[in-house]
Specification:
The protein has 1 helix and 3 strands; from the N terminus they run βββα. Strand 1 and strand 2 form a beta hairpin. The longest helix has 13 residues.
């Protein structure tokens, strides 16, 4: 006959369950920590000094331009600063 196991002691506590936290992807948008919904470019001035000029465009403007962020890229503090600076210089 099989031996019965000794009943658990009242002092023993069950091991707490380990719950994994759920990780969610950052939202899509133009705020820090989000993923860019589209490419963002700014044209460089025609004089060749390399200064950014004009508004943020979501496709390459032709000529010389600087890509601020690619679609799906992380919006960092620096990207947000450049996007905000472009908004402040629009005519």
């Amino acid at each position: 006959m099989a031996a019965r196991s000794k009943p658990d002691s009242p002092d023993e506590q069950p091991t707490p369950a380990t719950v994994r936290t759920q990780e969610y992807a950052a939202g899509t948008g133009w705020d820090v920590g989000q993923t860019a919904p589209d490419d963002a470019y700014r044209a460089l001035d025609a004089a060749g000094t390399g200064e950014l000029t004009g508004p943020v465009l979501h496709s390459h403007p032709g000529g010389y331009a600087r890509q601020i962020v690619a679609k799906g890229g992380l919006i960092t503090e620096g990207v947000k600063r450049e996007l905000d600076a472009a908004e402040n210089t629009e005519d």
